[in-house]
Automatic annotation (TrEMBL):
Biological processes annotated in GO: ribosome biogenesis
Name of this protein: GTPase Der
Highest taxon of the lineage: Bacteria
Gene that encodes the chain: der
Source organism (scientific name): Ruminococcus difficilis
Keyword Repeat: yes
Keyword check for GTP-binding: yes
């Protein structure tokens, strides 16, 4: 299922990014020691009264500027508009209603998307300043907001989610496995899908960044029915100078959110790069089942140690994803594609696996007897029981006497014991720690 998308749009310097950060809140400042997590995202989750949406920020629009940068901003904003279910148009009360605001408003109205008008920088408490009432000239009712102080953001979100009342999340067909093919540019993602389908479904070239949008391709074979999502290559942030490419990364992120399995493609010729691990980190963060596909295996010189050595490199650089199986393929020749499909089906099943509470607690009892829970200042961790609460990824709650005593290292130990007892290959496992009084 996918979340509705809300785009923040407006001319430059009206406070779009400040509003974005206020609406997303502390979700944007995720600890950045996890691969793939960055602090200056252009997308983030917004939650309001039990409902959620994906919020995307855009560069400022100058409708008639010939400036190259501003024209790129206009193009990337148009991509956001095309993607969005609701658009927030941001204006600046201090400068009043200017001609560019009117042009932007008419551009957005022509998109036929639901539109909410935010008059930003109304920072004083009480009635908005007189300039606010100029915005009633536009055919959209204005809402006074201070993105710095948060005034009016509740009214703004109320209006946004009213427009989303008719939005219904698309239920995925349980018989279809959705697969996002992700990776840095030019590793062969489009070539893989073209080989699988036997047709040139995706544009293939040696120019990095050819695939701008995410492209869905339905495939049915002896292994089952699959929806393959080809995504734009994700390169290092410092290399993302083209604003449109930033939105390609956004769409790749959205593809990860709506897939069942991520196929993380590597290039056997160039080896593993830091960007490969960051791409994988996006899939890890989303809790998706993963397969590492080493492409172009036909193009390198091999001996008996080539594959074992490459596996060691994967184990070292993808230590945070040690559960993900690696497949050595060739999108050009079709080498080991059957093996890839077998792994896709397998990790889909493991990510949806449920374990009974009785079996889980048998494993927990054995594990805690083998290695005693940690102590601190004479106080020992007591784990009363555990139970599984969800799948995709498998998520478990532990009830204990003191969550602070439940150190990360002991959680990792218990995760390893669970993986030994049950086949969770290909899928991350998540733990939730809850305190409970020992009575």
């Amino acid at each position: 299922m996918s979340k509705p998308v809300v785009a923040i749009v407006g001319r430059p310097n009206v406070g779009k990014s400040t509003l974005f950060n206020k609406l997303v809140g502390e979700r944007i400042s995720i600890v950045d020691d996890t691969p793939g997590v960055t602090r200056d995202r252009i997308y983030g989750d917004v939650d309001w009264n039990g409902r959620a949406a994906l919020l995307i920020d855009t560069g400022g629009i100058e409708p008639f500027s010939d400036d190259v940068i501003l024209s790129q901003m206009r193009e990337q904003a148009q991509l956001a508009i095309d993607t969005a279910d609701v658009i927030i148009m941001v204006t600046d009360v201090r400068s009043g209603l200017v001609a560019t605001d009117e042009e932007v408003a008419h551009m957005l109205i022509r998109s036929n998307k639901p539109l909410v008008l935010c008059v930003n920088k109304c920072d004083s408490i009480g009635d908005p300043p007189p300039e606010f009432y100029e915005f009633y000239k536009l055919p959209i009712e204005p809402i006074a907001v201070s993105s710095v102080h948060g005034h009016g953001t509740g009214d703004l979100l109320d209006a946004v989610f009213r427009e989303l009342e008719s939005y219904t999340e698309e239920e995925a067909d349980p018989e279809v496995i959705s697969v996002a093919v992700i990776g840095r540019p030019n590793v062969g993602k489009s070539s893989l899908i073209n080989k699988i389908t036997g047709e040139n479904r995706c544009i293939v070239s040696d120019i990095a960044g050819t695939t701008r949008d995410s492209i869905d391709t339905m495939i049915e074979n002896k292994h089952g029915t699959f929806n393959f999502i080809d995504t734009a290559g994700m390169r290092r942030k410092s290399k993302v100078t083209d604003q449109i490419e930033r939105y390609s990364i956004l769409r790749a992120k959205m593809a990860i959110e709506r897939c069942d399995v991520c196929v993380i493609m590597l290039d056997a010729e160039t080896g593993i790069t830091e960007q490969d691990t960051k791409v994988a980190g996006l899939a890890l963060e989303a809790g998706k089942a993963c397969i590492i596909a080493v492409n172009k295996w036909d193009a390198i010189d091999k001996d008996n140690s080539t594959m074992p050595n490459f596996r060691k490199d994967i184990e070292r650089d993808f230590a945070f994803m040690s559960y993900a199986p690696a497949v050595f393929i060739s999108a050009k020749t079709g080498q080991r594609l059957d093996n890839l499909f077998e792994n896709i089906v397998h990790v889909t099943n493991t990510s949806a696996m449920r374990i009974t509470t009785g079996l889980l607690n048998d494993v927990l009892a054995t594990a805690t007897a083998r290695v005693q829970p940690p102590t601190d200042k004479g106080r020992r961790l007591k784990i009363f029981y555990m139970t599984q609460v969800s799948v995709k990824p498998p998520t478990f709650i532990f009830f204990c006497n003191d969550a602070e005593l439940f150190h990360f290292s002991y959680q990792r130990y218990l995760e390893n014991r669970l993986r030994e007892a049950f086949d969770f290959s290909g899928t991350p496992i998540r733990f939730i720690i809850r305190e409970r009084n020992n009575k």
